[in-house]
Amino acid sequence: MKRQYNPYDQMCDVLGQAAQLLEIPQSDYIPLLYPERELKVSFPVRMDDGSIRMFEGYRVQHSSARGPCKGGIRFHPQVDLDEVKALAGWMSLKCALVDIPFGGAKGAVRVDPGSVSHAELERITRSYTASVLPLIGPERDIPAPDVGSNPEMMGWIMDTFSAFRGYAAPGAVTGKPVGIGGSLGRGEATGRGVLIAARELFKKLGRQLSGTRVAVQGLGNVGGTAARLLAGEGCRIVAAADVSGGLFCADGLDAEALYAHCTEKRRFLKDFDAPGAVRCSVEDVLCADVDLLIPAALENQLTGALADRVRAPLIVEGANGPTTVEADACFARMGKYVVPDILANAGGVIVSYYEWVQNLQTLMWDEKQVNAMLEKTMCRAFDEVWRTAAGRGCSLRLAANMAALQRLVQTRKIRGIFP
Fold first, then answer.
1. Predicted TM-score (pTM) above 0.70
2. Which one of the listed residues 106, 265, 270, 413 is annotated catalytic?
């Protein structure tokens, strides 16, 4: 069934708005409307019962203008090519915005990782890696975790790639376990970036983060980590949701217990015991009476039909593309501040860049150094977006896209068009 909101069309629409404000002709940014490469693969996997099952996967390289392509691998039963194209495009913009020398890519496998055994998941991951092998590598395209994948799976990818090459190649993938070249601080980097973005937003508005009432949708690595870190700053996580439903507790939910249950143990929120909490729907959480909303699940969660009911005045996007163009326009009319995904969740790719640098140079940085560098990069990017938005009188999303677009267009002009 065709999705109601095509995420790639949404990305191109916002990019067009940014280009119009910057008075950049389409001839200067038209390459960004078309991914450089789109690979669709089908591969067989032997299941535990001896049967053979076919799986479908994708790898899209959106732009390599600023450096090797970079992007995660999503394992999800509903993922499709348009979604992967949008995610790859957002990665190009994200890397340009925070000014790291990567282009954008994304990969995916159509599978529910919870529906297969651990052994089957390993065989699926390794077979997918072999299928996309012609596109990936430390100097070409570096995968990383995304929804439905984790550091262990990145280790399988690194090992599979290394086996084909005949030597250990830790720089072929990021977000892997520390024991095989992963970076300290990478696991919580995206959630920490969300915290930094929220902290900077409150600082710009002259408000204190401590005491803030927060709602979080999505309790995977990004949302779960962000909730735990925000609680550590004195925030109250009063509402939370995952695919199984929502919880509301005016006195605040135990963020550490939520993290242990949903993120570390990968269990559903419906099975979480929270005394004094009321069960509710995911929409109830998105529309909860809170000061700060963190949508950290999937795309197109905040739609035009829902926007009028969203009460949080401040939104920091932990997920990629959680807000549709229609909802974004509604939020602007309502005077809400929305820190866009390409800024708010950039912490993961920033520390992935640090991991890649460590791998290439055979270094190992301590976590304090990694976190300090992450904060410096995030704050620099936030300041640039804030100044652009203030100077142009536009939303933070348009300002972020403008800053990213300018860098990408400048790079393309420097490199020229071949032949």
1. yes
2. 106
